[in-house]
Amino acid sequence: MQTSLRRYFVVTGALSLGYGSIYTLLADLRDEYGFSETQLGVIAGVGFFAGFTAQVLLARQADRGHTAKMVRGGVALAAVAMLGCGIATEFWMFVLARTFLGLGSGMAGPAVRRLVILRDPDNVGANLGQSASWDVGGFVLGPVVAAVIAEFFGLRAPFLVLGGMFVVLFFVTSTLDLRSTPIEVPPGVHAGLLRQRALLSALAASIAFYTTIGVFEAVWAVLLRDEGAETWLIGLTLSLFTVPMIFLAPIGGRVAQRRGPLRTVAVSIGVATACTFAYGVSGVLWILLAVSIIHAIADSFTMPGNQVGVAVATPPHQMAAGQGLLGASGLATAGTVGLLSGTVYEHAGAFTLFTGTAVWMALCLGVALALGRELLEPAQVVVPEPLPEITTPPVA
Description:
The protein has 396 residues and is mainly alpha-helical. 80% of the residues lie in helices and 0% in strands. Helix 10 (197-226) runs antiparallel to helix 15 (350-371) and helix 12 runs antiparallel to helix 15.
Protein backbone atom coordinates (compact mmCIF):
# COMPACT_ATOMS: atom_id res chain seq x y z
CA MET A 1 0.00 0.00 0.00
CA GLN A 2 2.89 2.39 0.70
CA THR A 3 3.85 2.37 -2.98
CA SER A 4 0.32 3.45 -3.87
CA LEU A 5 0.34 6.16 -1.20
CA ARG A 6 3.69 7.58 -2.23
CA ARG A 7 2.11 10.13 -4.56
CA TYR A 8 0.18 11.52 -1.61
CA PHE A 9 3.44 11.79 0.30
CA VAL A 10 4.94 13.73 -2.61
CA VAL A 11 2.20 16.35 -2.21
CA THR A 12 3.05 16.66 1.49
CA GLY A 13 6.78 16.96 0.82
CA ALA A 14 6.35 19.51 -1.95
CA LEU A 15 4.20 21.78 0.20
CA SER A 16 6.77 21.64 3.00
CA LEU A 17 9.56 22.36 0.53
CA GLY A 18 7.83 25.55 -0.54
CA TYR A 19 7.15 26.48 3.09
CA GLY A 20 10.80 26.24 4.11
CA SER A 21 12.36 27.84 1.04
CA ILE A 22 11.95 31.43 2.26
CA TYR A 23 14.31 31.19 5.23
CA THR A 24 17.56 31.04 3.31
CA LEU A 25 16.50 34.07 1.24
CA LEU A 26 15.56 36.48 4.03
CA ALA A 27 18.92 38.24 4.09
CA ASP A 28 18.79 38.67 0.31
CA LEU A 29 15.30 40.15 0.56
CA ARG A 30 16.60 42.66 3.10
CA ASP A 31 19.49 43.65 0.85
CA GLU A 32 17.42 43.78 -2.33
CA TYR A 33 14.31 45.57 -1.07
CA GLY A 34 15.49 47.28 2.10
CA PHE A 35 13.14 45.39 4.41
CA SER A 36 13.76 45.72 8.15
CA GLU A 37 14.34 42.71 10.40
CA THR A 38 10.84 43.21 11.78
CA GLN A 39 9.36 43.09 8.28
CA LEU A 40 11.37 39.96 7.52
CA GLY A 41 9.95 38.37 10.67
CA VAL A 42 6.43 39.18 9.52
CA ILE A 43 7.10 37.69 6.07
CA ALA A 44 8.50 34.51 7.60
CA GLY A 45 5.87 34.18 10.32
CA VAL A 46 2.63 35.14 8.58
CA GLY A 47 2.54 31.81 6.76
CA PHE A 48 2.43 29.95 10.08
CA PHE A 49 -0.50 32.02 11.33
CA ALA A 50 -2.33 31.52 8.02
CA GLY A 51 -1.66 27.78 8.27
CA PHE A 52 -3.03 27.77 11.81
CA THR A 53 -6.21 29.50 10.64
CA ALA A 54 -6.71 27.09 7.75
CA GLN A 55 -6.20 24.00 9.90
CA VAL A 56 -8.66 25.21 12.52
CA LEU A 57 -11.37 26.54 10.21
CA LEU A 58 -11.03 24.68 6.91
CA ALA A 59 -9.68 21.18 7.66
CA ARG A 60 -13.15 19.92 8.61
CA GLN A 61 -14.30 20.42 5.01
CA ALA A 62 -12.37 17.30 4.04
CA ASP A 63 -14.57 15.33 6.46
CA ARG A 64 -17.62 16.65 4.62
CA GLY A 65 -16.58 15.10 1.33
CA HIS A 66 -14.51 17.99 -0.07
CA THR A 67 -11.12 16.32 0.09
CA ALA A 68 -10.37 16.84 -3.60
CA LYS A 69 -11.21 20.54 -3.40
CA MET A 70 -9.07 20.97 -0.31
CA VAL A 71 -6.02 19.24 -1.79
CA ARG A 72 -6.20 20.79 -5.25
CA GLY A 73 -7.22 24.18 -3.89
CA GLY A 74 -4.32 24.09 -1.44
CA VAL A 75 -1.80 23.26 -4.17
CA ALA A 76 -3.28 25.98 -6.41
CA LEU A 77 -2.91 28.56 -3.63
CA ALA A 78 0.69 27.45 -3.10
CA ALA A 79 1.41 27.95 -6.81
CA VAL A 80 -0.10 31.45 -6.72
CA ALA A 81 1.90 32.22 -3.58
CA MET A 82 5.28 31.21 -4.97
CA LEU A 83 4.71 32.91 -8.32
CA GLY A 84 3.52 35.96 -6.39
CA CYS A 85 6.79 36.05 -4.42
CA GLY A 86 8.62 35.81 -7.75
CA ILE A 87 7.11 39.07 -9.01
CA ALA A 88 6.66 40.89 -5.67
CA THR A 89 8.51 44.13 -5.03
CA GLU A 90 6.66 45.51 -2.00
CA PHE A 91 6.39 44.31 1.57
CA TRP A 92 2.61 43.83 1.43
CA MET A 93 2.96 41.68 -1.69
CA PHE A 94 5.30 39.26 0.05
CA VAL A 95 3.01 39.16 3.10
CA LEU A 96 -0.01 38.39 0.92
CA ALA A 97 1.88 35.68 -0.97
CA ARG A 98 3.08 34.01 2.23
CA THR A 99 -0.47 34.16 3.57
CA PHE A 100 -1.68 32.27 0.50
CA LEU A 101 1.07 29.68 0.99
CA GLY A 102 0.08 29.14 4.63
CA LEU A 103 -3.58 28.82 3.72
CA GLY A 104 -2.79 26.37 0.93
CA SER A 105 -0.62 24.16 3.10
CA GLY A 106 -3.12 24.31 5.96
CA MET A 107 -5.95 23.27 3.64
CA ALA A 108 -4.17 20.39 1.93
CA GLY A 109 -2.17 18.86 4.79
CA PRO A 110 -4.99 17.51 7.01
CA ALA A 111 -6.95 16.38 3.95
CA VAL A 112 -4.00 14.33 2.69
CA ARG A 113 -3.43 12.81 6.14
CA ARG A 114 -7.10 11.87 6.29
CA LEU A 115 -6.72 9.96 3.04
CA VAL A 116 -3.55 8.28 4.27
CA ILE A 117 -5.36 7.14 7.44
CA LEU A 118 -8.53 5.90 5.78
CA ARG A 119 -6.94 4.24 2.74
CA ASP A 120 -5.02 1.78 4.89
CA PRO A 121 -6.13 1.87 8.55
CA ASP A 122 -4.33 -1.39 9.34
CA ASN A 123 -0.96 0.30 8.67
CA VAL A 124 -1.76 3.79 9.88
CA GLY A 125 1.43 4.08 11.96
CA ALA A 126 3.88 3.29 9.18
CA ASN A 127 1.95 5.41 6.69
CA LEU A 128 1.75 8.46 8.95
CA GLY A 129 5.43 8.01 9.76
CA GLN A 130 6.26 7.96 6.06
CA SER A 131 4.17 11.09 5.57
CA ALA A 132 6.07 12.78 8.41
CA SER A 133 9.37 11.82 6.75
CA TRP A 134 8.35 13.57 3.53
CA ASP A 135 7.07 16.53 5.51
CA VAL A 136 10.33 17.03 7.42
CA GLY A 137 12.48 16.20 4.40
CA GLY A 138 10.73 18.80 2.26
CA PHE A 139 11.08 21.48 4.92
CA VAL A 140 14.81 20.78 5.27
CA LEU A 141 15.42 20.56 1.53
CA GLY A 142 13.56 23.79 0.76
CA PRO A 143 16.23 26.23 1.98
CA VAL A 144 18.98 24.27 0.24
CA VAL A 145 17.13 24.21 -3.09
CA ALA A 146 16.31 27.90 -2.84
CA ALA A 147 19.90 28.82 -2.00
CA VAL A 148 21.36 26.88 -4.93
CA ILE A 149 18.89 28.30 -7.45
CA ALA A 150 19.36 31.85 -6.15
CA GLU A 151 23.14 31.53 -6.34
CA PHE A 152 23.07 30.70 -10.04
CA PHE A 153 19.97 32.45 -11.33
CA GLY A 154 19.16 35.31 -8.97
CA LEU A 155 16.76 36.08 -6.14
CA ARG A 156 13.51 35.74 -8.06
CA ALA A 157 14.42 32.41 -9.63
CA PRO A 158 13.71 30.13 -6.62
CA PHE A 159 10.18 31.50 -6.26
CA LEU A 160 9.46 31.15 -9.97
CA VAL A 161 10.91 27.64 -10.15
CA LEU A 162 8.98 26.48 -7.10
CA GLY A 163 5.86 28.18 -8.42
CA GLY A 164 6.27 26.22 -11.63
CA MET A 165 6.72 23.06 -9.56
CA PHE A 166 3.39 23.70 -7.85
CA VAL A 167 1.69 24.30 -11.20
CA VAL A 168 2.94 20.90 -12.34
CA LEU A 169 1.90 19.40 -9.00
CA PHE A 170 -1.60 20.79 -9.46
CA PHE A 171 -1.96 18.85 -12.70
CA VAL A 172 -0.44 15.79 -11.01
CA THR A 173 -3.22 15.93 -8.41
CA SER A 174 -5.71 15.46 -11.24
CA THR A 175 -4.29 11.93 -11.56
CA LEU A 176 -4.69 11.22 -7.84
CA ASP A 177 -7.70 9.40 -6.52
CA LEU A 178 -9.07 11.89 -4.01
CA ARG A 179 -12.47 10.29 -3.60
CA SER A 180 -13.88 10.88 -0.15
CA THR A 181 -17.20 9.62 1.13
CA PRO A 182 -19.25 12.56 2.46
CA ILE A 183 -19.99 12.17 6.15
CA GLU A 184 -22.65 13.94 8.16
CA VAL A 185 -20.69 16.27 10.43
CA PRO A 186 -22.64 17.72 13.35
CA PRO A 187 -22.39 21.42 14.19
CA GLY A 188 -19.90 22.57 16.78
CA VAL A 189 -17.37 20.05 15.52
CA HIS A 190 -14.38 21.45 17.41
CA ALA A 191 -16.28 21.77 20.68
CA GLY A 192 -17.21 18.12 20.37
CA LEU A 193 -13.65 17.11 19.60
CA LEU A 194 -12.28 19.01 22.57
CA ARG A 195 -14.51 16.99 24.87
CA GLN A 196 -12.67 13.81 23.84
CA ARG A 197 -10.24 13.00 26.67
CA ALA A 198 -8.04 10.89 24.42
CA LEU A 199 -7.73 13.69 21.88
CA LEU A 200 -6.86 16.18 24.61
CA SER A 201 -4.19 13.73 25.73
CA ALA A 202 -2.68 13.61 22.24
CA LEU A 203 -2.79 17.41 21.97
CA ALA A 204 -1.05 17.78 25.35
CA ALA A 205 1.73 15.48 24.13
CA SER A 206 1.94 17.51 20.91
CA ILE A 207 2.30 20.74 22.89
CA ALA A 208 5.24 19.21 24.77
CA PHE A 209 6.85 18.26 21.45
CA TYR A 210 6.33 21.62 19.73
CA THR A 211 7.54 23.53 22.79
CA THR A 212 11.08 22.39 22.06
CA ILE A 213 10.63 23.25 18.38
CA GLY A 214 9.80 26.83 19.35
CA VAL A 215 12.78 27.06 21.69
CA PHE A 216 15.13 25.65 19.07
CA GLU A 217 14.00 28.08 16.40
CA ALA A 218 14.55 31.04 18.71
CA VAL A 219 17.77 30.34 20.61
CA TRP A 220 19.62 27.23 19.39
CA ALA A 221 21.93 29.15 17.06
CA VAL A 222 22.60 31.76 19.77
CA LEU A 223 23.28 29.07 22.39
CA LEU A 224 25.84 27.34 20.18
CA ARG A 225 27.48 30.64 19.22
CA ASP A 226 27.79 31.53 22.90
CA GLU A 227 29.59 28.21 23.37
CA GLY A 228 32.02 29.04 20.55
CA ALA A 229 30.45 27.30 17.52
CA GLU A 230 31.19 28.59 14.04
CA THR A 231 28.36 29.41 11.63
CA TRP A 232 28.96 26.31 9.51
CA LEU A 233 28.68 24.08 12.57
CA ILE A 234 25.44 25.74 13.67
CA GLY A 235 23.96 25.16 10.22
CA LEU A 236 25.18 21.57 10.21
CA THR A 237 23.55 20.82 13.57
CA LEU A 238 20.22 22.24 12.41
CA SER A 239 20.34 19.93 9.39
CA LEU A 240 21.54 16.89 11.33
CA PHE A 241 18.75 17.34 13.87
CA THR A 242 16.18 16.55 11.18
CA VAL A 243 17.98 13.62 9.54
CA PRO A 244 16.87 10.99 12.09
CA MET A 245 13.25 12.07 11.60
CA ILE A 246 13.48 11.46 7.86
CA PHE A 247 14.68 7.89 8.30
CA LEU A 248 13.21 6.85 11.65
CA ALA A 249 9.71 8.36 11.54
CA PRO A 250 8.18 5.35 9.69
CA ILE A 251 9.65 3.07 12.37
CA GLY A 252 8.32 5.39 15.05
CA GLY A 253 4.86 5.24 13.51
CA ARG A 254 4.89 1.43 13.42
CA VAL A 255 6.03 1.24 17.04
CA ALA A 256 3.27 3.67 18.07
CA GLN A 257 0.63 1.55 16.36
CA ARG A 258 1.85 -1.75 17.77
CA ARG A 259 2.66 -0.69 21.34
CA GLY A 260 0.30 2.23 21.81
CA PRO A 261 0.80 5.84 20.72
CA LEU A 262 0.86 7.30 24.24
CA ARG A 263 3.13 4.56 25.54
CA THR A 264 5.55 5.39 22.72
CA VAL A 265 5.48 9.18 23.07
CA ALA A 266 5.71 8.95 26.87
CA VAL A 267 9.15 7.38 26.45
CA SER A 268 10.25 9.67 23.61
CA ILE A 269 9.04 12.87 25.29
CA GLY A 270 10.65 11.73 28.53
CA VAL A 271 13.98 11.42 26.71
CA ALA A 272 13.45 14.78 24.99
CA THR A 273 12.67 16.40 28.34
CA ALA A 274 15.93 15.12 29.83
CA CYS A 275 17.82 16.37 26.78
CA THR A 276 16.19 19.78 27.06
CA PHE A 277 17.27 20.07 30.68
CA ALA A 278 20.81 19.05 29.68
CA TYR A 279 21.09 21.97 27.25
CA GLY A 280 20.81 24.38 30.17
CA VAL A 281 23.36 22.71 32.47
CA SER A 282 26.05 21.67 29.99
CA GLY A 283 28.59 24.27 29.04
CA VAL A 284 30.50 21.99 26.67
CA LEU A 285 29.80 22.40 22.96
CA TRP A 286 30.32 18.80 21.91
CA ILE A 287 28.14 17.51 24.73
CA LEU A 288 25.36 19.80 23.48
CA LEU A 289 25.76 18.39 19.98
CA ALA A 290 25.73 14.78 21.20
CA VAL A 291 22.61 15.40 23.29
CA SER A 292 20.89 17.01 20.32
CA ILE A 293 21.33 13.81 18.29
CA ILE A 294 19.68 11.78 21.06
CA HIS A 295 16.91 14.38 21.16
CA ALA A 296 16.41 14.10 17.40
CA ILE A 297 16.08 10.31 17.59
CA ALA A 298 13.44 10.69 20.32
CA ASP A 299 11.50 13.23 18.25
CA SER A 300 11.44 10.73 15.38
CA PHE A 301 9.08 8.64 17.51
CA THR A 302 7.12 11.55 19.00
CA MET A 303 6.01 13.19 15.76
CA PRO A 304 4.32 10.17 14.12
CA GLY A 305 3.23 8.87 17.53
CA ASN A 306 1.21 12.04 18.09
CA GLN A 307 -0.41 11.72 14.66
CA VAL A 308 -1.34 8.11 15.35
CA GLY A 309 -2.73 9.13 18.73
CA VAL A 310 -4.99 11.74 17.14
CA ALA A 311 -6.12 9.23 14.49
CA VAL A 312 -7.12 6.79 17.25
CA ALA A 313 -8.76 9.45 19.44
CA THR A 314 -10.74 11.18 16.70
CA PRO A 315 -14.28 10.04 15.81
CA PRO A 316 -14.54 8.62 12.28
CA HIS A 317 -16.48 11.62 10.96
CA GLN A 318 -13.86 14.10 12.21
CA MET A 319 -10.55 12.65 11.00
CA ALA A 320 -9.39 15.73 9.08
CA ALA A 321 -10.63 18.11 11.78
CA GLY A 322 -8.61 16.19 14.37
CA GLN A 323 -5.45 16.29 12.27
CA GLY A 324 -6.08 19.98 11.67
CA LEU A 325 -6.30 20.64 15.40
CA LEU A 326 -3.05 18.74 15.88
CA GLY A 327 -1.26 20.86 13.29
CA ALA A 328 -2.81 24.09 14.54
CA SER A 329 -1.87 23.43 18.16
CA GLY A 330 1.68 22.71 17.06
CA LEU A 331 1.97 25.94 15.07
CA ALA A 332 0.46 27.98 17.91
CA THR A 333 2.77 26.41 20.49
CA ALA A 334 5.95 26.78 18.44
CA GLY A 335 5.10 30.37 17.52
CA THR A 336 4.25 31.44 21.06
CA VAL A 337 7.23 29.70 22.66
CA GLY A 338 9.54 31.10 19.99
CA LEU A 339 8.41 34.64 20.79
CA LEU A 340 9.02 34.15 24.52
CA SER A 341 12.24 32.13 24.41
CA GLY A 342 14.51 34.87 23.12
CA THR A 343 13.46 37.22 25.91
CA VAL A 344 13.91 34.58 28.61
CA TYR A 345 17.33 33.59 27.26
CA GLU A 346 18.47 37.21 27.07
CA HIS A 347 17.37 38.21 30.57
CA ALA A 348 17.52 34.96 32.57
CA GLY A 349 20.02 32.77 30.73
CA ALA A 350 20.16 29.26 29.31
CA PHE A 351 19.69 27.42 32.61
CA THR A 352 16.41 29.15 33.39
CA LEU A 353 15.08 28.81 29.83
CA PHE A 354 15.83 25.12 29.36
CA THR A 355 14.99 24.08 32.90
CA GLY A 356 11.67 25.88 32.68
CA THR A 357 11.03 24.30 29.27
CA ALA A 358 11.79 20.83 30.64
CA VAL A 359 9.42 21.35 33.57
CA TRP A 360 6.67 22.50 31.21
CA MET A 361 7.20 19.47 28.97
CA ALA A 362 7.00 17.15 31.99
CA LEU A 363 3.73 18.79 33.06
CA CYS A 364 2.26 18.39 29.56
CA LEU A 365 3.30 14.75 29.52
CA GLY A 366 1.67 14.25 32.93
CA VAL A 367 -1.58 15.70 31.59
CA ALA A 368 -1.37 13.44 28.55
CA LEU A 369 -0.89 10.34 30.69
CA ALA A 370 -3.74 11.33 33.00
CA LEU A 371 -6.20 11.83 30.15
CA GLY A 372 -5.22 9.20 27.62
CA ARG A 373 -5.14 5.77 29.19
CA GLU A 374 -6.84 4.25 26.16
CA LEU A 375 -3.94 5.48 24.01
CA LEU A 376 -1.58 3.25 25.96
CA GLU A 377 -3.02 0.26 24.07
CA PRO A 378 -2.09 -0.78 20.51
CA ALA A 379 -3.68 1.59 18.00
CA GLN A 380 -7.02 0.63 16.48
CA VAL A 381 -8.30 3.24 14.04
CA VAL A 382 -12.09 3.17 13.58
CA VAL A 383 -13.16 4.25 10.10
CA PRO A 384 -16.72 4.90 8.88
CA GLU A 385 -16.06 2.63 5.94
CA PRO A 386 -12.93 1.75 3.97
CA LEU A 387 -12.28 4.20 1.16
CA PRO A 388 -12.24 2.75 -2.34
CA GLU A 389 -9.05 1.25 -3.67
CA ILE A 390 -6.79 3.80 -5.33
CA THR A 391 -7.54 4.13 -8.99
CA THR A 392 -6.55 6.40 -11.87
CA PRO A 393 -8.14 8.62 -13.06
CA PRO A 394 -9.91 9.78 -9.89
CA VAL A 395 -13.52 10.43 -9.27
CA ALA A 396 -13.67 13.64 -7.22
